[in-house]
Every structure is written in C-alpha cells, then in structure tokens.
Amino acid sequence: MPIEQRVTLRCVARWGIGKTTLDDVAREAGCGRASIYRAFRGGKQEVLTATLQRELVGAVAAIDAAVRDLDSLEEVLVAGTMTAARLVTDHAALGFMLANEPIAFERMARVFDAAAACAAPHLARFIPTHEVPRAAEWVSRVVLTYAFNPPRTVDIRNADDARRLVRDYLLPALAPTTVSRSR
User: Fold this and answer.
1) How far is residue 32's CA from residue 28's CA, in Å, rounded to a whole number?
2) Which residues contact 143 (CB under 8 A, 6 or more apart)?
3) Which of 161, 167, 126, 168 is nearest to 147 (CA)?
4) pLDDT at residue 124, as a whole number
5) Which of 7, 81, 151, 183 has its CB surrounded by the most CB atoms within 10 Å?
6) Which of 53, 60, 41, 42 lies closest to 5 in space, CA to CA?
7) Counting beta carbons within 10 angstroms of the beta carbon of residue 168, is it exposed (0 to 12), middle (13 to 18) or buried (19 or more)?
8) Dihedral angle computed from the Cα positions of residues 66, 96, 25 and 58, in that order, rounded to the nearest 10 degrees
9) How far is CA 164 from the centre of its chain?
C-alpha cells in the first residue's frame, strides 16, 4: 500500500474524513502536498477513494480466504460473518467514522455492493444461480448491519453468536421452502 494511503488511514482514524486535510496527510507522510498531488491529481478525494478501494479489496481477500475451502453453507456463512465483523470492528479509521461522523447512504451502497460481490461466488456453491444476487445482497446487508451497529447482546465476532445468527435468520431465509395452502 502506498505510504499516502497508510497515512490517510492513520489520519482518518485520528480526526475523521471531514477534518483530515491533504496537509495532514503530507505532514504525517513526511512529504509536501505537491508530492501527494503528483500521485493523486484529484487531491484529497482521490486519496480517500484509492484508500477505500484498497481497503475493500483487502477485506474481500480476507473473507475469501476464510470461506473458500469450507464445505457447507452454514460454515461459509459463519466464517464470513465472523471475518466481516472482525474487519469492521478492528479497523481504526472505520471505527472513528462510525462513532463520530454520519455516513451517507450513498457511500454505504458501495460497501454493500462490494460485500455482495464478495459473497456471491461463495453462496453460488450452495443455492440456485437465479437466487444468488438477491441472497448475496441480503446476507451482506444483514451481516454488515450487525457489524456496523452491534446489539449489546450479540457479538458476531464470536462463533456461537455468529452461528446463532446464521441458524436463526440467514439459513432459513436462504433455504427453499414449500408453502401449501388449503382452502
């Protein structure tokens, strides 16, 4: 990761996105603003976008590694849930932002889309192809909602709580059901 992006994460973890300036990033990196502008012509926004993209790629790789060799939908969902929750809660910059800055829904859409794209190929091993996009989006939204705003009584970083969430809510929603109605 380029130094500007590592430093940007440290600055955001300290001050948030709104208060982090390109001068802060340059000072922390030990270079001038001009050096950063040479690498990121779009300035602060381009540095932030590149940093976010790099963080998303790293998160997807971590989740892929955690679930790729698992043989059941339940195990994939549990491992994916725990890994995603740990990535969210252990990320200093994201933690500061969640605690101190409003996050616009349009920004979150990119995170949900990336999470669904990560989940889709793993879910595709277990559910019908036509259901994968809907299921991936739904699972991602549920897991990330729990990770971003955890209830006091549930810690999905913990295997027992993650498994309970998976068994009580995710698996039943993904399992094919037959509804018979008698009239």
Assistant:
1) 10
2) 80, 81, 84, 85, 115, 156
3) 161
4) 96
5) 81
6) 53
7) exposed
8) 10
9) 21
At 19, give phi and psi (nearest 5°): -95, -10
The H or E element that residue 158 is part of is none
Q: Which of 90, 73, 82, 88 is nearest to 155 (CA)?
A: 82
Q: Write the DSSP symbol of residue 19.
A: T
Rounded to two decimals, the pTM is: 0.84
pLDDT digit string (tens) for 128-169? 999 999 999 999 999 999 998 889 999 999 999 999 999 999
With contact defined as beta carbons under 8 Å apart, do 73 and 132 qualify?
A: no
Which position has the token pair 């990761």? 1
- 86 to 72, 74, 94: CA distances (angstroms): 21, 18, 12
Instruction: Give the relative orientation of helices 105-123 and 43-67 as an angle to the nearest 10 degrees.
Output: 30
**For the chain, which residues make up each domain, given as ranges?**
52-174
The pLDDT, as a whole number, for residue 179 is 38
Phi and psi (nearest 5°) for 175?
A: -75, 135
Residue 130, phi-psi category: left (phi > 0), alpha (psi -120 to 50), beta (remainder): alpha
Tokens of 47: 């540095």
Nearest CA among 41, 47, 42 for reference residue 25: 47
170: which DSSP letter? I
